[in-house]
Amino acid sequence: MALSLAACSSGGSSEGGEGGGALVGVAMPTKSSERWIQDGDAVKKQLEDEGFKVDLQYAEDDIPTQVSQIENMITKGAEALIIASIDGTTLTQVLQDAADADIPVIAYDRLIRDTENVSYYASFDNFKVGQQQATSVLNGLGLVDLEGNAIDGAPAGPFNIEMFAGSPDDNNATFFWDGAQDTLKPFIDAGTLVVKSGQTSFEQAATLRWDGETAQKRMENILTSSYSDGTKVNGILSPYDGISRGIISALTDAGYSAGEEWPIISGQDAELDSVKAINNSGEQYATIFKDTRKLATAAVEMTVAVLNDEKPEVNNTEDYDNGKFVVPSFLLDSQIVVKDNVNEVLVESGYWTAEEIG
């Protein structure tokens, strides 16, 4: 395979490209999130532009389905696998099958755990993403600017906040949480922020499968148990736009209305409905933009390099221990998006059009 790729890259056919028609399997978790559809499309397009054939599959957040899809990719003769896992701990045996067939595996955005049979990891600086989510909440409350610097004359508070975390089976969720807590802790310790529900642990805040309905139910329970005395929640740390929309539904049902009493809500992934909520209704204050096109490029470049027996570019060899070894990683940067910079960050980059955002 390496020889055929080398031949293509050193002169080969303009039709075949560097991939030479080799098959790459791409396993994505679900189509229920707009973000993963964009990821899958971007990876597929860039691989095909390199001359690869692509088997792109979505497992709809069902672990046995994802395992079966990867097994089928191996059977079809995939030369490499790019996997965004549903649960990063459940792929041990199927990845052993891949290793036995000398198939390299690129972990895509979600770290694959408890196996030596993963070659590289492409993602974002997920601890920083968590810090940015917390910073966006603090910014909306008037405590810091978007760089995290204290604002002169900032209000003393106290502000009531509640916190949500991502899915406990997704390694990224703990990075987001830890980054956010690193940023929020000084304000909580100072009494500027108060978690009125008392639910301050990852286990209490976790949202299985990043599900918006699950988040909505938890938010409803928090409002009933901790805010029935007429006090208001002022800020909500949300790690993902779909969770944010569930939280918004709970607030609306509880009688909150957009305006001064509406809480500051963070998010992640710049999904279109949430960008509209930032730009138009103001029901969501911020999201974190992670450019899936750049992540796709990183994963594709890793794939090409590995199949050419070359070492791909990495920029982190310390932080992503999967329980067996530290997986060499390439981490990309992310950006806080609020109403004031929606056009600059999302429209000018071509991620969304002005017409789409509205």
Structural description of this entry:
The protein contains 13 helices and twelve strands. It is of the alpha/beta class. Strands 2-1-3-4-5-11 form a six-stranded parallel sheet, sandwiched between helices. Helix 2 crosses helix 11 and helix 5 runs parallel beside helix 6. The longest helix has 19 residues. 49% of the residues are buried. The N terminus is likely disordered.
Structural class given helices, strands, pairing?
Answer: alpha/beta
Helix content: 40-55%
Distance between the termini: 48 Å
Large-scale geometry: elongated
**Could you tell me the radius of gyration in angstroms?**
21 Å
Please report the number of helical segments.
13
Low-pLDDT stretches: 1-16
Mean pLDDT metric: 94
- Give, in order, the helices and strands: HEHEHEHEEHEHEHHEHEHEHEEHH
Total number of beta strands: 12
Strand content is: 5-15%
Largest sheet: 6 strands, parallel
Strand order of the largest sheet: 2-1-3-4-5-11
